[in-house]
Design goal:
With 241 residues, this protein is mainly beta. The protein has 2 domains: 37 residues; 193 residues, no CATH class. It has 1 helix and 13 strands. The protein has an 11-stranded antiparallel β-sheet, with no helix packed on it. The chain starts with 6 loop residues before the first helix and ends in a 5-residue tail after the last strand.
Length: 241
């Protein structure tokens, strides 16, 4: 069966077919782009044992312990890269993506076998302009307890606050509150998801001037929303010493 069209419609048909083909190609390209972007590995945050993101043990879909590199790339550029050893994250590289450029978002290095009184590692987070905004320093204190110091900065780079925290072991939580910490939330080192203020906390205005200071020198083993024990020096306003 032969079909012919009036000459005055031929050009319109050709234009329409050309548009349809371009639209189909664009649709296919958009469909494939996410697959190309995430071609290597998709990190499953939920398939883990442990309460804190950086100290959990991670598993593959078949429940084997995750090992080696898990990354998402765009060509030769890294969008996300995590390195696992025995299921633990030992390094992490996350990047912002803007206007075709990759810039640092998160950098993490960890040594999960650190001894008493030794540093465990650190996490740094940057904004899209490359300014350091958050710096977490993890360490084991002299008693062997896992702790960390959190330092944050204003957008202008001035110090915003420094706060110290301690991780609480499941064995240290009283029996009444243990029901809030199921087994899957306890990591391989015995720590629960409970993290409490412990040590010195200081706040600064956007000019880097100290405006508030607190000191926590006793541990609270209760839920984070409960009243913590506050002891030691407390100064509000603009401390002079």
């Amino acid at each position: 069966m032969n079909v012919s069209f009036h000459p005055k419609y031929t050009h319109s048909i050709v234009v329409y077919l050309s548009f349809a083909m371009k639209s189909a190609c664009l649709f296919i390209l958009l469909l494939l782009c996410p697959r190309i972007f995430a071609q290597d590995c998709t990190f499953d945050y939920y398939n883990k044992k442990g309460g804190h993101y950086l100290f959990s043990t991670y598993y593959n879909n078949d429940q084997s312990i995750r090992e080696g590199v898990c990354e998402r790339t765009d060509g030769t550029q890294v969008y996300e890269k995590r390195v696992f050893q025995n299921g633990y994250i030992i390094s992490e590289e996350l990047n912002h993506y803007n206007d075709g450029k990759f810039t640092p978002r998160t950098r993490t290095t960890l040594n999960h076998q650190a001894k008493k009184g030794k540093p465990i590692g650190e996490l740094k987070q940057f904004n899209e302009q490359g300014t350091l905004m958050i710096h977490w320093e993890f360490y084991n204190d002299q008693s062997g307890r896992r702790r960390y110091k959190s330092t944050e900065f204003h957008i202008n780079g001035k110090l915003r606050f420094i706060q110290e925290y301690a991780f609480i072991r499941f064995s240290e939580i009283d029996s009444f509150n243990r029901k809030n910490h199921p087994p899957h939330s306890v990591d391989d080192f015995g720590y629960s998801s409970l993290i409490v203020p412990y040590g010195k906390h200081t706040w600064y205005n956007d000019q880097g001037v100290l405006i508030k200071e607190e000191s926590y020198d006793k541990l609270s083993f209760y839920d984070q929303d409960a009243q913590h024990l506050l002891h030691g020096k407390y100064t509000a306003g603009n401390p002079t010493n």
